[in-house]
Amino acid sequence: MPLVSMRQLLDEAAKGAYGVGAFNVNNMEQIQAIMEAARETKSPAIVQASRGARSYSQDRFLYHLMLAATELYPEIPTVLHLDHGNSVETCKSAIAMGFTSVMMDGSLMPDGKTPSTFEYNVKATREVVETAHSKGITVEGEIGCLGGIEDGHGAGLDGLSHLTDPDQAVEFVGQTGVDALAIAIGTSHGAYKFTSKPTGETLKMDRLLEIHRRLPNTHLVMHGSSSVPKDLQDIINQYGGKLKPTWGVPIEEIQLGIKNGVRKINVDTDNRLAITGAIRKVFAEKPEEFDPRSYLKPARDAMKKVVALRMTQFGQAGHAGDYAPISLEEMAKRYQRHLTA
Ligand SMILES: [Zn+2]
After folding, report:
1. How remote is the CA of residue 150 from the centroid of ligand 1, in Å?
2. What is the Cα–Cα distance from 298 to 305, expressed in whole angstroms?
């Protein structure tokens, strides 16, 4: 089947009360890892690329790898999503290339670093929604600012300085018409999210519950939601790495989120850790190897294992065959009807 809209996947996830992991990619092996995990667990798949990934892969390589994924895994409903679009132009270029979903992150200015105003965020996001929905493409917005840096994107704030205000979230969704909303509840991008296991003081799940209570029909998105498991950190450090002790978002907190409106969960760091640990292990144990496949294959397998586990934990496993894809043309018509209704 062709790439499908993210709106359809998230609507189905809401019906089935499960979450869908969104995994970042830069190259072929990462795409293969996600698609194999999706096949093994019979899961729908969201594959996402940041601006950094688009530049690393020259964009077209990535897009054509995704077309290969849809040919080779026709039974998996698959979305190609732009992660953290920094401007209307970036989102439009992704739509022109064939992405079926875009994130307009207007919580920051186009430099991707400076927190913006609410008015700017509404205006930029609204503009992307108009263009995207006319083509049946999904839009994710963000209100409040996440902590940390993701592929050069992010204000480098700590996770708690710009939490999402529930009143603003309601206003933002009403004024923009976004399909999904990323909220800031204390999570950060990168490996160093928390300096100890998060508590209600550092990971504000109560804020998420309040936003869901006010916006029961909006698909919520948790960014920076790798769990940064200790076993993956240990493999890296056992084979010469130098990661400092760190904590991510516990799976049980994500599962609590999924019970309360979270439909998309962004995971990147866990896969990076799995890949790096597997490569370090081969380098340490078989220093005579020099065929890249000797370490890329275990790296791909290690990522596949993490993705399959997350797909099971988020509840999307078993749901790939629940529904037939809705074409983007039909999605565009539905948005049109909704606007004129
Ligand atoms: Zn993010």
Report:
1. 6
2. 10
- Ligand 1 centroid to Cα of residue 260, in Å, is 20
Question: Residues with beta carbon < 5 A to ion ligand 1?
Answer: 150, 223
Instruction: Quick: pLDDT tens for 173-223.
Output: 999 999 999 999 999 999 999 999 999 999 999 999 999 999 999 999 999
Answer yes or no: is pLDDT of 302 > 70: yes
> pTM of this prediction?
0.97
Query: Facing residues of 141 across strands?
Result: 104, 181
Exposed / middle / buried, residue 249 (Cβ in 10 Å: 0-12, 13-18, 19+): buried
For the chain, the first-to-last Cα distance in angstroms comes to 30
Distance 292 CA to ligand 1 centre (A): 30
Q: CA 239 from chain center: how many Å? A: 29
Q: Does the structure show a pLDDT above 80 at 229?
A: yes
Q: Which residues are part of the catalytic machinery? A: 83
Say whether pLDDT at 271 is over 60: yes
Summarised one tens digit per residue, pLDDT across range 130-144 is 999 999 999 999 999
**For position 192, what pLDDT does the model report?**
94
Measure 319 CA to ligand 1 centroid, in angstroms. Answer: 25
Let me know: does 18 contact 258? Beta carbons within 8 Å.
Answer: yes
**Contact assessment for residue 163 and residue 204, using Cβ atoms and an 8 Å cutoff:** yes
Nearest to 149, CA basis, from 183, 193, 182: 193
Structure-token match 């990168």, residue found: 190
- pLDDT at 128 (0 to 100): 98
89 exposure class (CB count in 10 Å sphere: 0-12, 13-18, 19+): exposed
- Alpha carbon of 224 to ligand 1 centroid (Å): 6
